[in-house]
Amino acid sequence: MTPDAIKNWRNHFMQAIAEPLYIEAMFDAMPDIVFSIKDMDGRYVVISEACVERCGLNHKQQAIGKNAYDLFPAHMADRYNEQDQQVFSSGQALIDSLDLTVFNNREPGWCLTTKYPLRDRDGKMLGLACISKDLIEPSKDGFVDEALSKTVDYVRSQYSETITLDELASIAGLSVAQLDRRIKRIFQITTGQFIIKTRIDAAARMLRDTEKTVADIAMECGFCDQSALTRQFRQVTGLSPRSYRVIVKGLTD
Q: In the CATH hierarchy, which fold is given to the domain comprising 1-135?
């Protein structure tokens, strides 16, 4: 099918679904994942069943209209709120953040969080969607701590700059080999690959949401030149940056 035909087919299919929040029911069956949708004031519009035990609720409807401070300890809610404001102010997704959470047994642990902005048809920001995946085994085995969370935050904020493994190991308070083992345990890729993935994720967002040239995106995402971005992007996605832009813009425009 042509890009226009794919767009029309996709839109027709999605509009034909009777229950627009069918995805909520899917996540209800996953006790180690909290799926939620929030409005611009941080109030929960949708939240999955996994919130019930960990937040001490009788049913998930009790969370609707409340915010993170109503459900989670203040130090956790502070970080969640800070992330929400970052997404709202930048309009960009937050991907693979290591965050403290409360597991179903009410014990603290770590999760992997991704948040995406939600907009109406005119592009106005409405809120965000969030998926948090419990890292039960890595938490139990001591593979995640605040220092590692800061290391991941550093990569996400400084991906446009030169980042060395020694630098990251120093932030984590680990040797390069120890850091690599922890990153592999959580993300199933090496530390070097995690840096590249973060840059590719950022490049993909820019290709979809901006009209910047591929060369400019390459420089802004920490690649030495356009050819380096194209090579890495093709390895990860199977597409060149230009081909990827044509496809995603055809689906979203």
A: Beta-Lactamase (3.30.450)
